[in-house]
Amino acid sequence: MTEHIGFIGLGLLGLPMATNLADAGYALTVYNRTASKAEVLVARGATLAEHALDAAQPIVVTSLWDGPVVELLITPAFLDRMKGGLHISTTTMSPKLSTQLAALHAKHDVAFVEAPIFGRPEAAVAKQLAVPYAGLAEAKQRAKPILTAMGASSLFDLGEQFGTALATKLAGNFMIFSAVRSFTEALEMAKHAGADPKLVVEMLTSTLFSAPVYQSYGQRLAAGEPGLVSKIPAKDLGLYVEAAGQLHTPIANLFRTMV
Amino acid sequence: MTEHIGFIGLGLLGLPMATNLADAGYALTVYNRTASKAEVLVARGATLAEHALDAAQPIVVTSLWDGPVVELLITPAFLDRMKGGLHISTTTMSPKLSTQLAALHAKHDVAFVEAPIFGRPEAAVAKQLAVPYAGLAEAKQRAKPILTAMGASSLFDLGEQFGTALATKLAGNFMIFSAVRSFTEALEMAKHAGADPKLVVEMLTSTLFSAPVYQSYGQRLAAGEPGLVSKIPAKDLGLYVEAAGQLHTPIANLFRTMV
Questions:
Q1: Are residues A227 and A172 in the same domain?
Q2: pLDDT at position A234, please?
């Protein structure tokens, strides 16, 4: 494949996803605030962009910290360079901002697909990412093989309305937080009552809670390791509550006091 | 099999579990506050006890609303009649009360096994119950085939310390409550953001949350049906907080305001 992709953001997820694209034969121009992160990709033949604008290829993938950073980099000048192209936005941001960005892209004749990523860096390396995505049918069709090459093992089409894939991502992140914090609290209680946490984890994660999120965190909790350590939940809980508007979110409100 | 079992409590779980025992060939003497519930078992050859004391067979299974009801029925006079026997207690109660009951049984030379049940009535009928159990090794050995015949597809040995199987059950019930209420809250947010709840449920329950608890409740929530309807969570959340003693239980405390 010789399709040219501009890849912006080589963080914990961005780097392995870009590496997967390079390995799949895509020609990459990469940009990252800290340029040294790109070394492994340059060694694989990628071009290092000095400025973000130089990464404005016909197809662009962004993997950034939050929505405002995407806004900062994907400027009108950037979009003019991409005319007729496609931007696959994997950053977790508010559904509202994603919808606004999609409209801005449309004005510049650039297709926009929101495709936030479920999965830890190891899952990106192993190409086991779960990815909900939303956008116009034609754009999604174009994005699909790229997302698969990036490491998506499960792609879920949420439809054409922007914001829906992001809402799914925010729902899932909140549920991960809820599952891990509830498991943590419950295991403390069980230990207090004299139970061996390893046995409790084994019982629960092999029956009612036989899902990856409980199994992976359960092992860590049973071993006395901390559950959630990432800074991401605090950010995403804020986006969740914002996305809920006037709805009551008592559980998320409590969790925001716990991060 | 001609082993004689006294079965006390023919509620939503008790009735199908007793029916499974009758079908497996055990001779049953059953007792229930509302005697009419026993009809289907009497039709299968079970004896209906007029008083609870008449159900004091060498092996007794109790399936009652809460610990105080067990205390009310399993009196010293009852235990004297069971001398040398075994009581399999499936009622969800506090780990502390179960430990006290075990000591009382020991005084009367009756073995005690705590075996609280995970599973809805349909799961009892389908013999798909998950059962953590605790007690002395010999008593558990005796209880095992009976629990299996009652409908346990997964039996988890928590050890010899009483209270540990109950702590596991309280942990699991709290986690079910947490999972369902968090899922409910998250789906409302996603709907508000324009997402189709059916697609969100499909995505999340086929990836990170591919566990029975999310799959069964997710279908109901996506169809607009209420999540948890049982009265049991309120009772069990109280037992959970009690079992946690002086530990902080912010999540359970919030949930107690939500039932």
A1: yes
A2: 84
What pLDDT was estimated at residue A107? 98
B131 to A54, B124, B244: CA distances (angstroms): 61, 11, 21
C-alpha distance from A202 to closest chain B C-alpha (Å)? 9
Set of chain A residues whose Cβ sits within 8 Å of the Cβ of B192: 167, 243-245, 247
Which of A59-63, A186-190, B212-216 is predicted least confidently?
B212-216
Supply the pTM of this predicted model: 0.94
**Contact yes or no for A195 and B158 at CB 8 A:** yes
Q: Name the residue among A9, A230, A46, A179 with its Cα closest to residue B213.
A: A179
Q: Average pLDDT of A205-216? A: 92
Residue B60 shares a structural domain with residue B150: yes
Taking CB atoms and an 8 Å cutoff, what residues of chain B touch A184? Answer: none
Do B137 and B175 lie in one domain? The reply is: no
B6 touches B55 (CB < 8 A) = yes
- Same domain? For B187 and B219 the reply is yes
Element holding A62 (H helix, E strand): strand A59-62
CA dist B52 → A130, B75, B77, B91 (Å)? 55, 10, 11, 16
